[in-house]
Amino acid sequence: MTGQRTEAPDGYDDLARNPTRVSRRVPGPRRRGERHPGTDGIGPAPGRTGARPDRAGRGRRAARAAVVALAVAAAGALVDTALWGRPGWVFAVTAALAAALAARTCTRAGAWWLISAPPLVVAVVTVACEEAAGTTTLQGKGLATAAVRWAVDGFPAMAAAEAVLIAVLLVRGVRAGRRGGRKRSGRSSGA
After folding, report:
1. To which H or E segment does residue 175 belong?
2. String of DSSP letters for 83-140
């Protein structure tokens, strides 16, 4: 009848309060190294065709590539400074190679940060190299003149690095889109 309480066989009328029942809590995030639930830790989870690459490993690889890219750009600037007294075309070529390396190995989220990096990196390396060579003075009106010279000397490297970076990221995006399109077309091909 309506409104009457019934007793459950184990004495609990509310199943959510029954301590003998298994908890229905939603599991929290997995810790690094844990496999998907329901697997024995070997191979991908049931129903999956392949395991996703470890994000921490990709991040470390991208960080190493960024350090190597920075070292390549700095080495090119040092060579130019040693030969001609200021960064020039060798620096522009090595900055472009460094940008290509960084763009090739960065994560999708890291690409947004990477797009703004070439002008900043080139500016800092240019200033450091010209200061190390002693071609400028950082006093009074000389500072404004030196800043203009740094911008002019660093512009070819900035432009080359940014152009190569955007080109590599666009190629990666097109390839990822094609792979995604193939997967989607394979799924929708029923029967």
Report:
1. helix 141-187
2. HHSS--HHHHHHHHHHHHHHHHH--HHHHHHHTTHHHHHHHHHHHHHHHHHT----ST
Q: Which of 71, 32, 36, 73 is nearest to 54 (CA)?
A: 32
Q: Where does residue 134 fall: left (phi above 0), alpha (psi -120 to 50 degrees), or beta otherwise? A: left
Supply 163's token pair: 């152009």
pLDDT at position 51: 47
* DSSP assignments along 50-84, one per residue: SPPPPHHHHHHHHHHHHHHHHHHHHHHHHHHHHHH
CA 50 – CA 30 distance, rounded (Å):
18
Is residue 120 within 8 A of residue 129, CB to CB? The reply is no
CA distance 94 to 51: 36
Question: Which of these, 112, 118, 117, lies nearest to 156 by C-alpha position?
Answer: 118
C-alpha distance from residue 157 to each of 3, 124, 135 (Å) = 80, 12, 19
Of the ranges 81-85, 132-136, 142-146, 164-168, the best mean pLDDT one:
164-168
AA identity, residue 189: S
Single pTM value for the model? 0.61
